[in-house]
Each structure stands twice: as C-alpha cells, then as structure tokens.
Fold this protein.
Amino acid sequence: MKKILAILALSISTLFSGEINIAVAANVSYAMDALKAEFVKTHPQTEVKITLGSSGKLTAQIKNGAPYGIFMSADMFYPETLYKENIATTKPLMYAQGALAFLSVKPQDYSKGMKLLEDTSIEKIAIANPKTAPYGTAAIEAMQKSGVYENIKKKLVFAESISQTVSYAVTATQIGLIAKSSLYSPKMAQYKENIHWESVDATLYAPIDQGIVLLKYAGDSQEYKEFYDFIISQKAKDIFKRYGYIVHE
C-alpha cells in the first residue's frame, strides 16, 4: 500500500511540475538569479534550467536541434533569423536594452572616452567576439565611430562571450568593453564607477535591443509560455532596470 501511494505521489508530482530549458545570452547571466527567484515565487513546481553563451553560438545550437524552448538573445537579429526560418514560433519582442561599459582593474581617466584605448599603458583590450556576440559588434562600432579602431585593432583580445570578456578584463588585459549589466553583480562591487568602470557613450553604437522568442521545442508547454510571459512582464522589467538595462514601459 505504501509503495502504491509513493508511486501515486510521484505521478502527481510529475504531472504538476515541469522542467524548462532556456538559452540565454551571456550578458543576462548577472540578472538571471534574480529573475528565476522572482519567477519561482509563483511557479514553485517549475525547474528553470539555463544555458548561457554568445547569441550566435546559441543560435547555431538551436538550428542544430538543441532542446531549448525559449531563446533570450543579446540582439534582435538572431531571434529574427530563427523566426524567419520557422524555428521560433513568436515574433521577437524586446525584453531589455543593453549598454556597453569600460572596465579596468586599475583606475583610468575615463574623461578621455574612447581615446583612452590609444594610451600606451593599455596593451590589450578585451571585447566579445563580434562574429557571435552583439556586444562585440557594438564595441567595434564604437571604436570605428570614435576614430580609434585602426590605431588599436592590434590590441584587441576576443572572448567567446560577454561573460568571458569580463573575465579577460580583470585578469588578462588592461581594459575591456563589457556589458554594463555585469557591473551590477554583487561579485563586481569592488569596482567603482568613474574609477574602475564607466559607461561608453551610447551615441557611438546602435541601441542593443535584446529579443526573446518562443521556440518550436516548447510545443504547447504551459511552463514555457508562463516563463516567456514573465520575462516581458513589469516584474521582470524592474529586475532588468536594477541590473543596468534600459527598459521601455
């Protein structure tokens, strides 16, 4: 009898709980714990599994059949591509707008703006790979628009994702162009604005509109739909704001 009850309980638990797999651009990793914590308050039976990476690499995985039901990209281009190819079932919606920032372990004179990167004291500059990471594309655009790219392109060290760019900026290079959102992580509290980091002039690069789509893998899953709705809700927008994103009400 106890065995039957245990099997019945397990069946009921399985029926009313679910696991969802989300592909998430690396820049969102810093806000993800807060987003998940807020979501599970109202969906305690849903286990949210996150795979982080550059938007380009995640898109390649999705095209090759990776089991993700939602894709949160660092731009709109990759979700648009998936929608056009009928891999995404919803048109891309912008859930947040990202921003670039300088980061250096040593204090820097950020009043120089992008010209700072030309200083002889800066031998290596970390940026995300522009071929797969939208923040890397934005970094190159800012360098070109400010007229410093040709002088500093030999200094560039390319990271696979924006989170790896942060790692390079604090360990392997003198400075990095990173996602501003990463600076709002508790782990980054030691780095101070105007001393270790500063926002990059937003007029130097196109707005980093970050898009979300539901993917075919989600099927009719209610859990995926609920998480998708949450990410575009006001509660999620409030969290994104706390992590340095721009959101449109």
